[in-house]
Amino acid sequence: MKKISKAITLLLVVAAVVFAAGCAEKTATPLNVSNEKGQVVTGIDSGKTISLKNGESFTLNLVENPSTGYAWELNLSKGLSILNDNYRDPSTPHNMGAAGTHSWVIQATAPGSQQVKGIYKGPTGAIDTEENFTLTAKVV
Fold first, then answer.
1. 127 CB contacts (<8 Å, ≥6 apart)?
2. Parallel, antiparallel, or unpaired: how do β-strands 57-64 and 39-42 relate?
3. Cβ count within 10 A of residue 102
4. What is the mean pLDDT of residues 124-138?
5. φ, ψ for residue 61 (rounded to 5)?
6. How many CB atoms lie within 10 A of CB 39?
7. How far is the CA of 101 from the CAs of 8, 15, 26, 86, in angstroms?
8. Strand bridging mode 112-121 / 131-139
9. Terminus-to-terminus CA distance in the chain, angstroms?
10. In sequence order, which ranges of 23-140 are alpha helices (DSSP H)?
11. pTM to 2 decimals?
12. Tens-place pLDDT, residues 43-71
């Protein structure tokens, strides 16, 4: 009986470690995404300003884990347009449930101060679990 109790305890500890590893921090470095164009912006660039020429594109890579119900919702000002939008899994079997990278290729379509605003929402949309992303693009 004592051995069974120890085995169950060990199993629970291993399960907790595996679960915790799958709940990696959302702001980790994103995976390399092959369709990147122009400047590459990531979550650590939130709150910054970039400069673009009208017609130029940049790539926004944000860590996302849709398997847990969390996803980015982006709002762009009228002078920006999404050319490409895709999600890339961690791509290895031992990373099942781990976050991947959501990538958008965004093109400047009008001069002026343009905005990218994103919110990382969970399945319930609860305010205390949201993360925000903002970026200003000065387009000339």
1. none
2. parallel
3. 23
4. 80
5. -115, 120
6. 15
7. 36, 25, 10, 8
8. antiparallel
9. 74
10. none
11. 0.70
12. 999 999 999 999 999 999 999 988 888 88
Residue type, 73: E
Spatial distance between the Cα atoms of 105 and 126, rounded to a whole number of angstroms = 28
Let me know how long the chain is. Answer: 140
Residue type, 27: T
Residue whose pair of structure tokens reads 């319930």 in the numeric block: 124
Q: Tell me, what's the pLDDT at 93?
A: 62
| Side chain identity, residue 26 | K
CB 106 within 8 A of CB 93: no
Sorted by where each starts, the structural domains of the chain and their CATH numbers stand as 25-139 (2.60.40.2020)
* Secondary-structure breakdown of the chain: helix, strand, coil percentages, each rounded to the nearest 5: 25, 45, 35
Tokens at residue 107, please? Answer: 């093109």
Q: Which residue has the higher pLDDT, 25 or 35?
A: 35
With CA atoms as reference, report the closest residue to 44 among 135, 122, 106, 138.
135
3-class DSSP state for residue 52? strand
Q: Which two tokens stand for residue 116?
A: 């990218």
